[in-house]
Structures are given as C-alpha cells and as structure tokens.
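Example record for the data management plan.
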Amino acid sequence: MRFRAVIFDLGGVVFPSPFDAFAAYEREHGLPDRFIRGVVAASADHGAWARLERSELSFDEFSVAFSAECAAAGGTVDAADLMREIGRGFEPRPEMVQAIRTIRARDLKVGALTNNWAPSSTEADAAPHALGHLGNFDVVVESAVEGLRKPDPRIYELVCERLAVEPPETVFLDDLGVNLKPARALGMTTIKVTEPGEALAELSAVLGFSLDGG
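Corresponding structural encoding:
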C-alpha cells in the first residue's frame, strides 16, 4: 500500500513518557510502583485525568480532584507538583525528530495526535502543553482543544479528516495499546512504541525507506 501520512502520538513517542515522571515521583515519595498509573486507569474516562485532557476541568480543579482520587486509593499525591515534574526536561527524542523530517522530505504528510491539557496560570506548569506547537507537523490534533481524547474513535477520524487522508492510508504510532486498538479498527496501520529505535525500524520497514536521514 502507498501510505500518504504518518501520525505520531507525542508524550511517550516523540517525547519521553509522562509515565517516567510518575515513576520518579513514586520513588521520591515512597509510593508503590505504578500507583499513579493505576489511579489514572481506574478512574477511566470519567476521572480527573481524562477530564483535564478534555478541558472539562481547570488546572486547579484537576489538582484538587486528582489528589483526592489518589487519597481514596491510599496514597498522597500533590497533583500540582506532579504536573510540574512532568514539564521538566521534556525535550523531543532526536531520532523521532529526524524520522519526521525524513518522512516529510518523502512528501508524506505528518500529523500529531495527542492527549494533553490546557496550560495552567504559571509558566512552569504550562511547559508540557507546548508539545503540540513544534512546527514539524502538517496537522496537530490535541485533546484539550477538541474536547475529545484517545481512545475515542472520533479523534482519529478528525486527524485523518484534517490531513485529507483515509485511515487505511495512514500509519499511527502510540505507546499505549489501548490507543492503538481503535486506530486498527478504523483501518490504520499501527505501531506500538516501547523502545523508540525498534519502533522506528518497524516504521521504516512499513514505509519502505530509511528514516535516519542517511
């Protein structure tokens, strides 16, 4: 198949995963491993994390609600402090940036599809929210802007519509299996990003050309 577009998740794919910040916070504060991920997963689509990513809560409202969810699960988490930790050191992975440039040079479209959140009132907290404004993408679809978040199938349809492609003409990369399932159901070719180099090797094989710029 001749693919016309590649769509990248941001956190965990183009950028380091917020889960790394979760793990660091857990170690620093004596919380069980994967505790914060567990709270996010248990709260599902109606919890504070999901509602923040759809801009249904302000940052301050989220901080109160998410801290309460963690407390109910048996742990103490300062949500505002956690989010500041996520924003520190968020630099794009060089190999992903090179791959995006190479894909564009081959005249394929490149999109970003990300679950994110609207900036808070302070610059430090706002840092992660700049991820969708890199300039390397033809289209950026952000959950906080659209009021939809992965894995809602409508947000995948939206990014394809804005790229003017059909889902089977795209490759989609994400670090979470739950976000890949609806993409596959729509006909997208999907790649799970666990280790960036391995994911890019798989993407190179799918596209039929090298992504290292050489």
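Summary line stored alongside the record: The CA atoms of residues 51 and 161 lie 24 Å apart.
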